[in-house]
């Protein structure tokens, strides 16, 4: 059977690669390439402005915490104001904040606009995950989220290396203006997407206030993601400085290899998730992340750096989409937005906690301690997952 006949045999309701899914993937790519270009260069910019390692941690962390605070509101807004409004609103704030970096000349202003950027990113990333979930057939959600993740991974393959390369030949002002252009492109593409209409939700008006900032069905995968992404905060904030301190070259290659293996793992892991469930994806992926962090804490040469990138990329690329699919699959249709908000809030919290705590560790000890501590956080995630499995088995037995 030819490829075309196979494609034609798939019912329209089960197809992943629709017009709107392709548009959200491309828009997501442009959002993330702009974001990823600033990820390794913001610490360098802070150093140029006279900031310390502690300040780097605060500036990275404050972005993620502002994103974290706004996500519950974004989740509610997705179900009340609609996908289109939330996505376009977030993209506008995110793009304006990137452009504003071009005229920042002090740490204080950088902190303010990083807060604004976090708000824009919180709206944008919560919306885009929910929009992708809407567009993917439920029976192929793990596979579809893996494909969707490739758009961000491709940006990750290009963004950090491109940002580090450009900052060596152009000014920070020019770099930030280029990242703002990627936001404008994403905004234009987002206007062409046909969004799912929001179904009216009957709300309980018996009480004037209901504490509702997370989706409880998404808590377990979100807690696991939190402990995994603490390690991400250490890599994103301090790896370029750590490699320079140790005299290890190839930091651009690290981000490239990491992203390539991230992309390789996503398609494979997504299909395994759909067929076998998260047990066949999470544990192998988390163990790979743990090994990669131990290699980074050692880091004797460039070969070790690149090997760690491959292992971490394959591990994280397996774990993240599986956890996201798990987070949304049990949520009610009118709670998918809040489930995604809960999931990405844990991502933000992990990166923010990692960046701030590791900034203090770098100041008090040394960069290599960061990666040992991050490996310990991943081990906590593995233990917590084993507890989930045990409780699930015990409940099924009873």
Automatic annotation (TrEMBL):
Its main location: membrane. It comes from the Bacteria. GO terms for molecular function: transmembrane transporter activity. Keywords: Membrane, Transmembrane, Transmembrane helix, Transport. Residues 20-393 form the Major facilitator superfamily (MFS) profile domain. The chain crosses the membrane at residues 21-42, 54-74, 86-113, 119-136, 148-169, 175-193, 223-243, 255-273, 280-299, 305-328, 340-363, 369-393. GO terms for cellular component: plasma membrane. InterPro entries: MFS, MFS_dom, MFS_Exporter, MFS_trans_sf. SUPFAM superfamilies: MFS general substrate transporter. It is a multi-pass membrane protein. The keyword Phosphoprotein does not apply. It is found in: Cell membrane. PANTHER family: PERMEASE, QUINOLENE RESISTANCE PROTEIN NORA. This is MFS transporter.
């Amino acid at each position: 059977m030819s490829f075309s006949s196979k494609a034609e045999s798939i019912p329209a309701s089960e197809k992943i690669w629709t017009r709107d899914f392709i548009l959200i993937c491309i828009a997501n790519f442009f959002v993330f390439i702009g974001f990823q270009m600033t990820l390794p260069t913001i610490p360098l910019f802070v150093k140029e402005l006279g900031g310390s390692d502690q300040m780097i941690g605060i500036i990275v962390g404050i972005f993620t915490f502002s994103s974290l605070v706004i996500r519950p509101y974004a989740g509610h807004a997705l179900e009340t104001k609609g996908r289109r409004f939330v996505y376009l609103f977030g993209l506008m704030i995110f793009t304006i904040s990137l452009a504003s970096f071009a005229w920042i000349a002090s740490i204080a202003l950088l902190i303010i606009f990083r807060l604004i950027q976090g708000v824009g990113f919180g709206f944008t990333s919560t919306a885009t995950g929910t929009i992708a979930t809407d567009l993917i057939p439920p029976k192929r959600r793990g596979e579809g989220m893996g494909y969707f993740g490739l758009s961000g991974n491709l940006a990750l393959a290009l963004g950090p290396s491109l940002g580090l390369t450009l900052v060596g030949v152009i000014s920070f002002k020019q770099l930030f203006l280029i990242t703002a252009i990627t936001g404008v492109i994403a905004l234009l593409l987002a206007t062409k997407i046909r969004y799912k209409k929001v179904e009216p939700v009957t709300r309980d008006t018996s009480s004037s206030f209901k504490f509702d900032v997370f989706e409880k069905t998404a808590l377990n995968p979100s807690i696991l993601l939190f402990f995994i992404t603490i390690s991400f905060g250490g890599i994103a904030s301090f790896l370029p400085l750590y490699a320079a301190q140790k005299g290890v070259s190839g930091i651009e290659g690290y981000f490239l290899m990491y992203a390539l293996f991230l992309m390789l793992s996503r398609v494979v892991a997504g299909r395994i998730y759909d067929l076998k469930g998260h047990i066949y994806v999470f544990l192998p992926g988390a163990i790979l992340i743990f090994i990669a962090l131990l290699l980074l804490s050692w880091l004797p040469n460039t070969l070790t750096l690149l090997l760690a990138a491959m292992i971490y990329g394959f591990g994280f690329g397996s774990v993240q989409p599986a956890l996201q699919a798990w987070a949304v699959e049990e949520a009610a249709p009118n709670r998918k937005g809040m489930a995604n908000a809960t999931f990405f809030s844990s991502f933000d919290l992990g990166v923010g906690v990692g960046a701030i705590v590791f900034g203090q560790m770098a100041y008090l000890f040394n960069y290599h301690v960061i990666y040992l501590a991050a490996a310990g956080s991943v081990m906590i995630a593995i233990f917590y997952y084993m507890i989930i499995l045990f409780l699930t088995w015990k409940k099924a037995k009873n």
